[in-house]
């Protein structure tokens, strides 16, 4: 199922399918299409979203997370 | 290092080969720099500790190298002041050798900026640092394979203990300009067989 990264529930895994914002900024941080990630933290009141990509955690603004499409239930 | 120096053009000593140490924030560039030069750059466990540059010299095999510890950057399209310093230093030192430092536990992220540097056609050498941390996390890095794909010398190091630093210093003179097209070909498995490297241990020297 394709959802916005910002809608991924805490602790769940998903695979990045589409980046509708500056792909360069996310790519150089290690977030690329096809990568599996896990939601680590979603801060309340529109706070930052933190995801785990393998060994590294990256944080991004909620607006950015809303522009990333991920696929859940791939069991990747 | 005075602020003035960091802001203006890099007024680098004209002696020997200039080596720019470049890599993501918090991969141990400054620790490696201290190891190689005996300097005392500030090292901490936080990304963004180095915001302007520090330079030092060391002599290896009768050749003087001026090593410059560049602030960490995720890419060559700067997004903050420290990254701008890094990009400017690269631009102001077109004849320099670039030592790309990777964190062995996060190699893929480091390779992004590494390839950006290689695209510029500067001679490169890659140091895969933090090997101790990788061992602890049961991560192995295939140094020989990485070297085969990139076509530039790759050396594994642990700056905190000094492991591999000697090798890195010796390999500096073998730094090479990477061929991006050839890297892409090798990744697709379309490698053209090169006579000269057959049966070679792969020291990255040829």
From TrEMBL, chain A:
Gene3D superfamilies, per database record: 2.30.30.90
Keywords: Iron
Signal peptide extent: none
MF GO annotations: transition metal ion binding
Domain Ferrous iron transporter FeoA-like: 3-72
Domain of life of the organism encoding this protein: Archaea
Keyword presence, Iron: yes
Name this polypeptide is given: Ferrous iron transport protein A
The species this protein was found in: Methanogenium marinum
UniProtKB/TrEMBL annotation, chain B:
Gene3D superfamilies: P-loop containing nucleotide triphosphate hydrolases (3.40.50.300)
A single GO molecular function term of this UniProt record: ferrous iron transmembrane transporter activity
Residue ranges annotated for the FeoB-type G domain, each copy included: 16-178
A cellular component annotation (GO) from this entry: plasma membrane
Pfam families according to UniProt: FeoB_N
Family matches, as PANTHER family: FE(2+) TRANSPORTER FEOB, FERROUS IRON TRANSPORT PROTEIN B
Protein's UniProt name: 50S ribosome-binding GTPase
Organism: Methanogenium marinum
Lineage: Archaea, Methanobacteriati, Methanobacteriota, Stenosarchaea group, Methanomicrobia
